[in-house]
Amino acid sequence: QVQLAEFGGGLVQTGGSLRLSCVASGSISDINAMIWFRRTPGKLRELVATITIDGRTGYADSVKGRFTISRDATKNTMYLQMNNLKPEDAATYYCNYHSTLGHDYWGQGTRVTVSS
Q: Which residues contact 5 (CB under 8 A, 6 or more apart)?
């Protein structure tokens, strides 16, 4: 059983930066992938970035070159560094941990607002 909590959201101007954190409680020994999603009201949830336990990363085309996903296994924490933010990046960001046992764990989300 895993509990997740996101931190770091807030208000930023276009072109600014934020770093989001996702802190896990409990054992994550069965986790093999960690993912950042985002959702805006009226839109489907969008995959933003993913990282596997062996270090492979992937990004949505819309954020490639601007966002960086990383993790610190010693702290049970995943990060999303967001640079050159655009108004279309405004959303609630959620972290997701995928278990090899078939479970998905979600945080409560952290809201990012980008002003133009």
A: 22, 23, 25, 107, 108
Q: For residues 25 and 3, is the Cβ–Cβ distance under 8 A?
A: yes
Low-confidence ranges of the chain (pLDDT < 70): none
Contact 113, 47 (CB under 8 A): no
17 neighbors 108 (Cβ within 8 angstroms) = no
Q: DSSP class of residue 88? A: G
Residue found under tokens 């985002």: 38
Residue type, 41: P
The pLDDT, as a whole number, for residue 116 is: 87
Q: What share of the chain is helix, strand, coil (3-state, %, to 5)?
A: 5, 55, 40
The two structure tokens encoding residue 55: 């270090």
